[in-house]
Amino acid sequence: MKNLFGKLVVATVVGMFMIVAMAGMGLAADTIKLGVAGPHSGDLASYGIPTVKAAELVVKEVNAKGGVLGKKVELLVEDDVCKPEVATNTATKLLSNKVDVVLGHICSGATRAAMGIYRDSKIIAMSPSATNPALTQSGDYPNFYRTIASDDAQAKLEVDFALEVLKVKKIAVLHDKGDYGKGLAEFAKRFLEESPKGKVVLYEGITPGAVDYSAIVQKIKRSKAEAVIFGGYHPEASKIVSQMRKKRMKTIFISDDGVKDDTFIKVARKYAEGVYATGPKDVSNNPMAIAATEAHKKAYGKDPGAFFLNAYAATLALLNGIEKAGSTDYDAVEKALRTQFVETPLGKIRFDERGDAVGVGFSMYQVQNGVFLEVK
Predict the structure, then answer these.
(1) Residue 8, class by beta-carbon neighbours within 10 Å (0-12 exposed, 13-18 middle, 19+ buried)?
(2) Are both 234 and 303 inside the same structural domain?
């Protein structure tokens, strides 16, 4: 009898532990897992960290209201340093942690490297910043969405602005040899060659991370270019512009949303003045954009950085897609993203059959007195 009693006690205790363990497992499984992938360290962290902050703010508000489908949203944040070879590991790690959807990646090259991995596991990923046209236009990544317009639209704006507004004719087109920068430069070159008003006097790729760009600066000078269109990111742009201005070159510098970031101004300092760069349309008068910006200031004590509003919109769109779908099922969420509108800081958006957001676009900005201002 005593022995039987002991066995019952042991069985009861073991059963209790199993119930607790299963409850713990159930709790972990009973969340919506949102991956956030991008550069959170390194030279391009200023592009990735604002996306993390946007996701944190949206998720905090959503969870305070009961979550999505009655479940809390859990963030899984992974750094890819904007490098394709790291992004594949980042994607694999997110999948191993059973992520449901992904916010990211940020850079086009890293996005392309990771997207096939997500596709093969039927995971939807939405970027606030990856603008390479092939990501949606090639048909290779039906699982990819973005809340920013593609580089063909961005390059067209840059070329039209140079020819129609600035009235320049001789243009040097440079790029950083990456998916993003080279892709944009190729479109700019094509648009210029198709126009009778402009001429490409120099087309060349540079080496990212170089300390000195005096050789390419000298080529720009010899080409007698009136303007430069550069496809790439702020670390290289700041060096090229600085070296051009130190040589007293007045050649107009036009770039992209990879340069339209306060870090460019901080690094290039006085040499940033007058530089033009395309970026997401100004939505500062949108009530949701105002509220999101104020929430960031309150939470983090400063203004948000690049692509914050696009990331905020992407987070809302992903979670709304799951809510409307009634589950995290890939096909159901995909249908919801393409048919259901959602209110965001970018306006009321949905996604077309390719995954591009309907209703978003680019504007031209210029550095004036140390800040980027939209050119009306």
Answers:
(1) exposed
(2) no
